[in-house]
Specification:
Elements: H1 4-10, E1 16-25, E2 28-36, E3 41-45, E4 48-53, H2 56-70
Antiparallel strand pairs: 1-2, 2-3, 3-4
């Protein structure tokens, strides 16, 4: 039987990484990444898929906005 970590590792982002960074949330640095795929730009926050955007700029803004909301 597969463990949770094995299942999570199996679903890696497809495409090419175009942007990555970290934001400080409650004293911890949370990483975010933007990948370019066939459907558009996909934003990932701490390894979890956030959404698919039409442009890289929108994807970066979306990831940073989510992290800003988490900081509250």
């Amino acid at each position: 039987m597969k463990t949770f970590e094995q299942i999570r590792e199996a679903k890696k982002p497809q495409g090419k990484k175009v942007h990555s960074g970290t934001e400080k949330v409650r004293g911890k640095k949370i990483p975010y990444e933007v990948w370019k795929g066939s459907k558009g730009y996909t934003a990932y926050v701490d390894g979890d898929m956030l959404d698919i955007f039409k442009s890289e700029k929108d994807a970066v803004k979306g990831a940073q906005a989510i992290l800003k909301d988490l900081a509250r």
